[in-house]
Write a structure and sequence with these properties.
- The chain has one helix and nine strands; from the N terminus they run H-E-E-E-E-E-E-E-E-E.
- With about 100 residues, it is mostly beta strands.
- The protein has a single domain, classed as Lipocalin.
- A hairpin with a 2-residue loop joins strand 5 and strand 6.
- The protein starts with a helix and ends in an 11-residue tail after the last strand.
Amino acid sequence: MLEQELDGLRAELIDDESVEVFSFNGSSIAATLGTKSGPVTAPIVVYEVTGINSIIIRGLFPIIWENIEFNEGFIRVKRNGSNATYKTTKRENASKKRKLP
């Protein structure tokens, strides 16, 4: 169920200094990570569900989301032990697989 809620979701961290954007597509995530006044990186990472309302994002370093709460236009999580809020948008036709021409 959690996978279905995340599929097609774009989550952008609300923070004055950090850049953290996750675009969920199946079990893969196109991520943008870094700082607003410094370097950023854009890896493709994977995640796995670790509980009813928790996931671990595996990539450059693990990011653990626990106590995930979906609100209209936002996700609130405990991110690596600290509270975090992400602004969310949903991609249209998220379940439709895209193919290269």
